[in-house]
Amino acid sequence: MALKTSLTFDQPLGGIISLSGFLFYGTVENEKNKNIPILISHGRDDPLLAYALCSKSYEKLDSKAHEIRTEILNHLEHGLDLRSIAVFKEFLNKYAV
User: Which domains are present in the chain?
Assistant: First the structure.
């Protein structure tokens, strides 16, 4: 959901943090958010949104236009933990305005 709503938003954003999600088919990026950094965090053991399926949608993101960081966390299901929070903090410290 974060990828779809952020990439199509009509105002410029500072970045996207996507948790256990995927890029919806047919998402057309708004020009204002074509070059924003993206953090994708996904639990390898997610039973609701299997990483193997979601990873195929991530491949559709243009890595030439976006700085994309993908964190796949072993032994994590559909949620977050202290490792996730550390990754978010690092991302926010790097890109927060």
Answer: 2-95 (3.40.50.1820)
